[in-house]
Amino acid sequence: MTKKTPGTPNPAHQPSRSDRLKPAELLGISGAMSLFVGVTILLTTRELMLSVIGLGVTFIVALVVIAMLVLGMKPNASEQTDLDEQNGH
């Protein structure tokens, strides 16, 4: 049995399509939230700069909150076996 050195990728592991698109989904959700807030501010105040500031702040806050929620989730059995496979256990 060959010993796997830490830090080298496992050539047999290929992430699924949903695993690869997960970051894009999180960015899309954050972008949709910020777009809603930006358009709402623009329609109520008619000030473009205030709308852009609200859009940017909402995007960053939503992205951080979603990331913290994802980090807090416990992996299920299939994710745990995948993590163990990647770590060489």
UniProtKB/TrEMBL annotation:
Residues 1-15 have a biased composition (Polar residues). Keywords: Membrane, Transmembrane, Transmembrane helix. Residues 1-21 are annotated as: Disordered. The chain crosses the membrane at residues 26-43, 49-71. This is ABC transporter ATP-binding protein. It comes from Cryobacterium serini.
